[in-house]
Amino acid sequence: MTNQLIDIGVNLMHRSFDQDRDEVVARAVASGVTPLLLTGTSIRSSDDASRYASRFPGKLFTTAGIHPHDTRNCKAHTMDKLRQLAKLPQVVAIGECGLDYNRDFSPRDVQRKWFEEQIQLACELQMPLFLHEREAHYDFVRLMKPYVGSIKKAVVHCFTGSLQELQVYLQLGFYIGITGWICDERRGKHLRELVKKIPLDRLMLETDAPFLTPRDLPIKPQDGRNEPAFLPHIAATVAACLGRSAQEVSDATAQTTKDFFGI
After folding, report:
1. Is the peptide bond before 35 cis (omega within 30 degrees of 0)?
2. Domains of the chain with CATH codes
3. What is 79-94 written as a DSSP string?
4. DSSP state, 245?
5. Which residues are annotated as a binding site for a divalent metal cation?
6. Three-class SS of residue 155?
7. Which residues contact 223 (CB under 8 A, 6 or more apart)?
8. What is the pLDDT of residue 127?
9. From the annotation, which residues make up the binding site?
10. Exposed (0-12), middle (13-18) or buried (19+): which is 101, by Cβ within 10 Å?
11. Confidence (pLDDT) at 20
């Protein structure tokens, strides 16, 4: 039996998939990675992802949200558009939203305003939050804390932070998404220890494709592009860190993901 794995973070509408998007989905399914959760990062990408996912009912789900990089483009009607998208059956979370003080592609005050708007929308609709935080832990927690009792559920996707940050997120009741960063012997070393601190019922797995291709893949993709079919490799790395079987980690994270997103 193939392990079932669910990839909670696929940027499938990224231009690098324009030539072979359907084949990428087929390769994922053939590798036991199904369903996939496509990430919305702007009104346009959230709309494109939800349209694409509608062709694969039960196999593809999406988030709808504004990534901190894109908050500079938000308008008065942006939240209404997200609210409309959120009504679609394939849209199962609000996000990717949060704060990114590493790149500062949008001014920090603008990031904070639209992050809070999306937190409030998720509370209003009682939908899970798909979160992004990079080098903005203090402000991120400060904005989230008042809503902890009202938020349905929240996952900090692509976690690469410190032990202290992880402990804060777990204490707040958040879930944690782990990517192929854990496969990087240079940058991901600390994650191999930290993943042991995450309860299996709070852990989810993701590729963040086409980004963060695992550095130690036995066969490297020629174009360097990551895709969901590589998730079993990430799951095996996580399992080795935990001293558990890949089957156990696959089953547990898949169940956690189904419960979290209601899929």
Report:
1. yes
2. 5-261 (3.20.20.140)
3. HHHHHHHHTSTTEEEE
4. -
5. 96, 132, 157, 208
6. strand
7. 16
8. 98
9. 96, 132, 157, 208
10. middle
11. 97
Give the mean pLDDT of 97-123.
Answer: 97
Task: Phi first, then psi: give them for residue 58, nearest 5 degrees.
Answer: 85, -20
pLDDT, tens digit, 9 for 90 and up, residues 34-65: 999 999 999 999 999 999 999 999 999 999 99
21 vs 15: CA distance, rounded Å: 10
CB 158 within 8 A of CB 169: no
How does pLDDT run across 12-22, given as a tens digit for each residue?
A: 999 999 999 99
* pLDDT tens column, 250-260: 999 999 999 99
> Which pLDDT score, from 0 to 100, does residue 150 have?
97
Tokens coding 205: 């797995």
Query: Cα–Cα distance between 22 and 83 in angstroms, integer?
Result: 28
Non-local (6+) Cβ contacts of 112 within 8 A are 99, 139, 143
Write down the pLDDT at residue 3: 65
Write the DSSP string, 35-58: EEEEPP-SHHHHHHHHHHHTTSTT
Contacts of 49 (CB under 8 A, 6+ apart): 12, 13, 38, 39, 40, 62, 63, 64
Per-residue H/E/C for 3-14: CCEEEEEECCCC
pLDDT at 2: 52
Measured distance CA(10)–CA(138) in Å, rounded: 27
pTM of the model: 0.97
